[in-house]
Amino acid sequence: MAYNEFMFEKAMEKKISVEAVNWMLDPERPKSMWARYTIDSECKSDHVTNNVAESFNSWLGDDVTVRFLLDLILIVLICVYLCLHVINCLCVYFG
After folding, report:
1. What pLDDT, on a 0 to 100 scale, did the predictor assign at position 47?
2. Is 25 part of a structural domain of the chain?
3. What is the pTM (predicted TM-score) of this model?
4. What pLDDT, on a 0 to 100 scale, did the predictor assign at position 49?
5. Is position 17 within any domain?
6. Residue 2: left if φ>0, alpha if ψ -120 to 50, beta else—which one?
7. How far is CA 67 from each of CA 64, 71, 74, 77, rounded to the nearest angstrom?
């Protein structure tokens, strides 16, 4: 699992079977087709993002308003603030 060419060459120096070496060095199988370090790591499609957005929208439902979402965010922030405030008070009180 070499993520760069240096690690790939280092891994190739290890003792492996002759059949494996012949398979890897076969000119009909260029490294760009099977070596991990040659494969581009950037995402080519935003399909995953679209699926996440669609899942989020279906989770919310059709009758959710922006005001409801803002109120929900406000409630969560208030709860977090109160929890932190209680923890701080307890730390000050109990030292």
Report:
1. 62
2. yes
3. 0.38
4. 64
5. yes
6. beta
7. 8, 6, 10, 15
Number of separate domains in the chain = 2
Q: For residue 76, what pLDDT is reported?
A: 95
pLDDT of residue 74: 97
Can you tell me whether residue 22 is helix, strand or coil? helix
In Å, what is the CA distance from 60 to each residue of 21, 49, 51, 67, 69?
Answer: 54, 17, 14, 13, 9
Give a yes or no: residue 44 inside a domain: no
Running along the chain, 95 residues long, what does each successive block of 10 average in pLDDT?
76 79 81 74 64 80 85 95 93 82
**Residue 70's domain spans which residues?**
62-95
CA distance 66 to 23: 58
**Alpha carbons 12 and 80: distance in angstroms, whole number:** 52
Q: Is the dihedral of CA 25, 28, 30, 34 positive or negative?
A: negative
Identify whether 15 is part of a domain.
yes
